[in-house]
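Slide 14.
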Amino acid sequence: MNSKKLFTIALSAAMLAGCGSSGSAAAASTAAAASAAGTAAAASGAAGKVYYLNFKPEADEQWQKVAEEYTKETGVPVTVLTAASGEYESTLKSEMSKDEAPTLFQVNGPVGLASWKDYCYDLTGSAIEGELTNDAYNLKDGDKILGIAYVTEAYGLITNKALLEKAGYSVDDIKSFDDLKKVAEDITARKDELGFSAFTSSGMDSSSDWRFKTHLANLPLYYEYKDAGVGDEEELKGTYLDNYRAVWDLYINNGTVDPSQLSTATGDQAEAEFVNQEAVFFQNGTWEYGAVSAIGDDNLAYLPIYFGVDDANEGLCIGTENYWCVNSKASPEDIQATLDFMNWCVTSDYGVKMMTDGTEGMGFNIPFKSNPESSNVLVNLANANTGTPVSWNFTTMPSEEWKNVLGQALTVYAADQTDANWELVRQAFVDNWATEKQLAANN
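Slide 15: predicted structure.
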């Protein structure tokens, strides 16, 4: 199945209920960058300018090159500012309050749109909307298209086949949570002899905790929603929290770092552990290909996060939380310049290469007609997986506060794995969900 078809099916299945990433903020000062863009616009005689607030720190270098090339070709100034990991929403709030606000920004799905819809230009009938492979990639408010997905992604357990084989196993030996547990615990028992661990560190620093308070937390949501046949809930039962606990226990007790030290372990640290072949399994997504390709494409495999519920059918987690929105409060000239820039990114040879190439570019799977066969091996491995894709339901999480409270509870539990501390996780997941949903409804 080709990449366009698989990701179309997956996102349609998610019903738009919906990387998280590691990295650092762009170097330039925001005010200076915006001012420079205005000055350049005047100097070039361009009708408008583009100011893009980028969500993905790991793609900052590529977006800077895209901006430079577009300005070179068109004379239209493009400024790209990249928010630090975990700080996009606060950065967006700050930037939108300024005179030179972003003309292009993003939201993560329906919850994010609810906060920003008054700033979103209606993209119905725009050139970029016409480039989509499926209208499921539109993010709507009523009849208005206020956001357009620009990348679809997958996450699961990135696996080092060579290390797995050194431990005496192959990916064919892992078809369920029980299989994964058996392999991981055996590797841990022989860790000194083998010279590596089962899992990379499950860091709860802000550069890494999203992998567990958001991406891993998606699985109990997915199965609870699936049982109820819904795409969102105002209240949760927590039906699959025992499964969540079992996977979390497996990660933290069979990883490279002592569970009591996870509060300061970072995303870069986990990435380096995998690249340096210190661990077999690394929970992360297709966006990590540029880094993990260092171990060799032939050594890479991609396993689902087996959850002990429907393991025989479970596939990778596939969807998006990346929707482009155009600032409706920008000048008409800047709005048109931004629409033209977006369309160029997904139709021009240079723009498409930079967005999709896994070596020089961002390695994205893009939901547009121009999407080529991917050079990102993780994308191809995701497409080859025959399991039922797990939809991205974490875009329905009620707030960043809900995620943060859950992350804090997971960290406390990791350091002292008692039933009483897991009760804190349950309260953060179930009780605080209802509280935060109600707060969101009242705002």
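Speaker note: The radius of gyration is 21 Å.
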